[in-house]
């Protein structure tokens, strides 16, 4: 039992190694050992990545760079990084450099509050803001192959770094809104996010094992979808699963939920592109 | 005697709208295939079977639990064989998503993927229903299926015979209860057989 856990940890470290990021040899990572949340008012005693609850062969698929199907989208993102598009004649690389390691850390601290606009900004939004404002190019549609590719590529630069979002100060009202959303029952089945992911993680609902519903691996390659999907696509799916009307991807509601969820998973390593059932 | 609430009347009106809408969809199909396709794609959660009818009932004090519904919602006994069907149906009932029942699991034959899919792999988040008829009266079992939150306010278990008072129900499930009065009685009849 312990042996498998250790083995898993080693493969993860190896997988992270290819991105040039070293993982601390000891200490909790929420993947092999649980994280004890630092926040006093945190509802969970132990924080675990969805990796823990995924099937063993799914975990293995994620761990191996060559079998991880999300890597194809990562490569799409990499190609787009230096592709000039839009009226300003620029690419991402024109502003951020050819080496995308300038993006290191971004995936761990988003979503952030854009105080000027008074709105939360996630990676998908930020990429589109760069496109429309700096490149004078068209924004990408949520969950298009370009948006997924670039989001995966950017987030993967933070692989292994602990999720750490700012939820105090001006961000507090957004955090509170996200928290309220998380605990509000909805749909014909009358369930909140917390009903399943706080109350029953680690237990099976028919064939699915419930995880804590953490966001550190997104965009995630889901075997059921046969492609990667955004976190907001997952929100929409979980809403529909309880027969509730979903919100729009990129809506204020889902952005606030994204911020709150990142706080619940603070300290988990960015795992993008993760692989899930 | 059980009569049906105002929802039954609303149901009739809704039927008229439904017909009108299907006509509109048919017309749209004739004009643009894509919009009809979008309409059809939207209707995916509550397919046919969820119920517009909700019976009137009055909960009374229970014996082992706080509440029960003493009388049958239809005035008749249900059919346990049909009850088994609803309890294992993925959309209607799906009780075994959460509850294990030894008698149902025994119907899953190793090597027979069809029976495994129907009866195997019960969830593990709710108490087993084995012997549930020894623990509770029929009226209490009926209350638990109709609206368990009346007894356990914080439970994850959905109300199977309720169609109002929800938050943000998706379009095609709006105004519907998961199980019709007849089907609730079928499920209750099956639960009645779960003695040790």
Provide the gyration radius of chain A in Å. Answer: 18 Å
Measured as a percent range, the helix fraction of chain B is 40-55%
Mean pLDDT of chain A: 91
CATH fold-type name of the largest domain in chain B? Cytochrome Bc1 Complex, Chain D, domain 2
Low-confidence stretches of chain A: 1-26
Return the string of H and E elements of chain B.
HHEEHHHHHH
Shape estimate of chain B:
globular
CATH class identity of the largest domain in chain B:
Mainly Alpha
CATH architecture of the largest domain in chain B: Orthogonal Bundle
Segments of chain B where pLDDT lies below 50 for 5+ residues? 1-40
Write a short abstract of this structure.
The complex is a heterodimer of chains A (277) and B (196). With 277 residues, chain A is mostly helical.
Plain-language structure description:
The complex is a heterodimer of chains A (277) and B (196). Chain A is 39% helix and 6% strand. Chain A is built from 11 helices and 7 strands. The longest helix of chain A is centred in the N-terminal third of the chain and has 16 residues. At the A-B interface, β3 of A face loops of B.
Properties at a glance:
heterodimer, A: 277 residues, mainly alpha, Cytochrome Bc1 Complex, Chain D, domain 2, 3-stranded mixed β-sheet, two-stranded antiparallel sheet, 11 helices, globular, B: 196 residues, 2 domains, 8 helices, 2 strands, 41% helix, 2% strand, disordered N terminus
